[in-house]
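Example 4.3 (complexes with small molecules)
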Amino acid sequence: MQKQYWKTICGFVAVIGLFSGCNRVNNPEEIAMLQEQSNAIMAMATETVPTETTTTPETTTVTTTTTTDLYAPFIDYDAGIDPDKPMVALTFDDGPSEHTATILDVLEQNNAHATFFVVGENINTYTGEHIKRAASLGCEIGSHTYDHCNLTKASAKEVDNTVKKTDDTVFDLIGRYPYWLRPPYGSFNDDVRLQIQKPLAFWSIDTRDWDTRDTASTVNTVLNYIEDGDIVLMHDFYAPTAAAAEQLIPTLIEQGYQLVTLSEMAYYRDFQLENGMLVIDMHPDEPSYYPTPDASNNTTTVESSSEEMTETVPCEEAMCTDSVESY
Ligand code: NI
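Answer. The structure with nickel (II) ion bound is encoded below.
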């Protein structure tokens, strides 16, 4: 059974705080110092759980319906991904938008994959084509809810609705459902995780591209911090981010990284996914994640500052300020 590690809430929030400041650091000495601090906090925050030994009787699973496939993770088994070589997952939230096409162009030119966490409301006749194209290129389509709502502020019914509406919209386009969900604003709690019948994706590198709107900052943040198994947070809603992707994708490949979907990374790293799990990174020796919560425990809410939080409003109104723009 896979070793289980996870961060305490306090350590986790502290680390997010550090990453949140990454874009403002340009001095290499400061970067090294921050990285050291980050590592120290991560080390302190890491709890090692005794490895459970469970005896699982061997079973033979026979898949006889296509229903399973409709919910399958997005894995291109013919992409030539080498599990022994470094890999990273670039992820783009809040789209699709007109800038998604630029990112798809550079992914296609480099035979690279990424994961797009789409907002259902942003899907229209025009942007829907980007989703179809992304899927055809081997990219993963994840859910970022239908209306970019703060799931911890929404009722159970609203959570169900916003997830289902996105699932159905994506299904209508590509004939399959999103496997992962990324909670808007990085906001989640145990109730939300238990309710959403998907693994949840967090990130280990926060470019804060939505805040800086600066191509060089986005590129530098990734290149300064990237390591094997990282999950990089960007937003395909901004032109500077698309320009950053044009630089980052070939550069990361030159540096020896395979650019894979989240599901490919989990598959090739033998990382066991479960619904309700929240994955921060898939570093080869010490992946960071919250395991699926125990339904009997009290809930804990985590709010990340990674995305602009507008205010506490009902689900249907809780939009990213910038996502309201239309085409
Ligand atoms: Ni978002």
